[in-house]
UniProtKB/TrEMBL annotation:
Pathway: One-carbon metabolism; tetrahydrofolate interconversion. Homodimer. It comes from the Bacteria. One of its GO terms (molecular function) is methylenetetrahydrofolate dehydrogenase (NADP+) activity. NADP(+) binds at G162, R163, S164, I228. Pfam families: THF_DHG_CYH, THF_DHG_CYH_C. This is Bifunctional protein FolD. Catalyzes the oxidation of 5,10-methylenetetrahydrofolate to 5,10-methenyltetrahydrofolate and then the hydrolysis of 5,10-methenyltetrahydrofolate to 10-formyltetrahydrofolate. Its EC number is 1.5.1.5, 3.5.4.9.
Amino acid sequence: MEILKGAEVSAKIKEQAAQMLSRLGEHVPKLAIVRVGERPDDMSYERGATKKMESFGLRVQSYVFPEDVSDQEFKQEFHKINRDEDVTGILLLRPLPKQIVEADIEKMIDPSKDLDGISPSNIAKVFAGDSTGFAPCTAEAVIEVLKANNIPITGKRVTIVGRSMVVGRPLSMLMLKENATVTICHTRTRELEATCRDGEILVAAAGRAKMLDSRYVGRDAVVIDVGINVDENGKLCGDVDFDSISETASMATPVPGGVGAVTTAVLAKHLLCAALRRAGLEG
């Protein structure tokens, strides 16, 4: 089984990003990372995104608010970030605490700065196949992994396990745009094992540690593991039992070191796209 490492895909995106950045002259785009509270997974993603932006030569600033910030106060502060001319794009770390009405923030965010595809406008564009809408970075990272490794998507049977608006549903639309034949499964799908085995490309995005083992993987399938979980030993793992599929799958992404490394590279690419659009230089 060939291991599809995210670092190599990220390096290819970095080359594209360097060309995009050169078109902006002296202007360096700025990412605003908005975090509420101290959730470990949010802070981990924030560190990774900050490191990636800096390695791509981009500016980044974190805006951190206490866990108990009121809905009104957070909206006031978010409005300022949203309107700040120096901010090219925004990454809002979610889920937000219960006292904040997340749907209101999704409607507030400027679609041209919404780099992770949370605004109704961008979601609608993704579902309509309109490439001017920003797709969620993780969903797009899956496509980037496949293309960077010259894995054909057109005409392939793609099975996606997971139906969230972060990965499963938008990814199904991106796959359809690439002319794949898509099946979306979830934890309540009947005959889940057989349905997964039918996929020539299997994407695991269910959010359950090591849920998919060799019983779910067809012979020579390509397996993309989007899950990020912590196992019983406190180690990071995906939704796939990686060791068990080595004799069945032809290729697979590891966790860590797979899709996650590409997600932040896609975020950087989106930031540069936003800057080029604002400058009227896209195309």
